[in-house]
Specification:
A hairpin with a 7-residue loop joins strand 1 and strand 2 (about 15). This protein is mainly alpha-helical. The model is unreliable at about 1-10 and about 160-170 (pLDDT under 50). It is built from 15 helices and five strands.
């Protein structure tokens, strides 16, 4: 059985016996010119992940899927990753839809050596995403001359466009539920300096993610020097997914919230292009340390969890929605509210930095609302 230990590296330290480390994998490429020097499965996976070092959100997602498969293959099948066949990957796909109890035990910690690797069964969309990521891993190892073939290349492509669209547009908060979250934040304790610091950070973080329609990695890396004013209007320069850059408009209200956050930490409230302090400071409130994407995600999830617990007595459906919500829901919520307000879809596309306007169109709910009202009106 593999030994999984915590590590600050791109991949946890996975200690495997030689029979399972991949050196003798049945799918290893024999002959030919290798493009990499790595000679074990863990080493090659670590090298693959290094290709995404400049994209923290992608790196976390890819690392999670690679660790799951490595542990499953060696623990359940007693096979190295480099010996997996198409039949093995079919079994893994079935496992993802119904992981056994020990893999999703809620009593296990979320981090560390003995952590749980699943929260529960994956949805069809999440299974497709996981297998797509792993197919990319296998394809990389084939191109590197490490594996002879990609067992997932044989997988039948299923059309998931309609299902994905429905899932995507449901991941937002309506205005009433969003206002409830803002009101709940105002009830956070503020009796001590540390509690006040946490309250101010949460208050600003939620408003920033929503007000600027940011991905969690974008919020984590945004700095004061990225703010600029043109013709009396404030903008935030963002380098987003795939290295694409864009400017996001910021409201006067959001800038006032930023100024409040800065004043709490004793900082100047007039941004300069040379200032490198983060828009969201570290947990200790240091202006020279950024809050990591993982920390931002965990802060937001915890607030949603506590807000859900407070709401459950009067609104079970709303509480269930908040328990599912995460950082990316705030981006979806922002886009949906912009669309509901009648904003030009081209402007929303630019605000979210979407390459295709079809992606932005999933946030247009007003027509559905009108159709429902017209259809059901007596």
């Amino acid at each position: 059985m593999p030994n999984l230990e915590p590590s600050d590296d791109s991949l946890p330290t996975i200690l495997l016996p030689q029979a399972l480390d991949g050196r003798l994998g049945s799918n290893r490429a024999r002959g030919g010119i290798r493009q990499i020097a790595a000679d074990t499965d863990v080493e090659t996976v670590r090298l693959w992940l290094a290709e995404y070092a400049d994209s923290p959100h992608t790196l976390r997602s890819y690392r999670k899927e690679a660790v799951r498969l490595l542990i499953w293959a060696t623990r359940v099948l007693g096979k190295p990753l480099s010996s997996l066949t198409r039949e093995d990957l079919l079994a893994y796909e079935a496992f993802l839809t119904n992981p056994s109890v020990e893999w999703a035990d809620p009593t296990l910690p979320r981090r560390g050596g003995g952590r749980r690797l699943f929260e529960g069964p994956l949805s069809p969309r999440s299974v497709r995403q996981a297998l797509g990521i792993l197919s990319g891993l296998f394809g990389y190892l084939v191109a590197a001359g490490y594996l002879a073939g990609n067992p997932l290349a044989l997988r039948r492509r299923r059309s998931g466009a309609k299902a994905s669209r429905r899932v995507a547009v449901e991941r937002y908060l309506d205005r009433e539920l969003w206002q409830y979250v803002l009101d709940f934040i105002e009830t956070l304790p503020q009796g001590t300096r540390r509690e006040c610091q946490h309250y101010e950070r949460v208050r600003w973080l939620f408003r920033l993610l929503y007000g600027a329609s940011l991905r969690v990695s974008e919020a984590a890396h945004a700095k004061t020097g990225d703010l600029s004013q043109r013709r009396g209007k404030w903008w935030l320069h963002v380098v987003g997914k795939g290295g694409s850059a864009g400017d996001v408009p910021l409201s006067d209200e959001l800038m006032a919230d930023w100024a409040r956050y800065r004043r709490f930490h004793g900082l100047l409230t007039i941004p300069t292009s040379l200032e490198t302090s983060p828009l969201v400071m570290s947990v200790a409130g240091r202006s020279d340390r950024f809050l990591t994407p993982t920390a931002i995600y965990l802060v937001v999830k915890e607030v949603f969890r506590r807000a859900a617990a407070a709401l459950e007595a009067v609104d079970l459906a709303g509480a269930a929605t908040l328990r599912r919500a995460s950082t990316h829901w705030l981006r979806h919520t922002s886009a949906t509210h912009q669309a509901d307000a009648g904003n030009d879809i081209r402007f929303i596309q630019k605000n979210l930095r979407h390459a295709s306007i079809e992606t932005t169109a999933i946030y247009l709910h007003a027509e559905d609302d009108q159709r429902h009202e017209t259809t059901t009106r007596r």
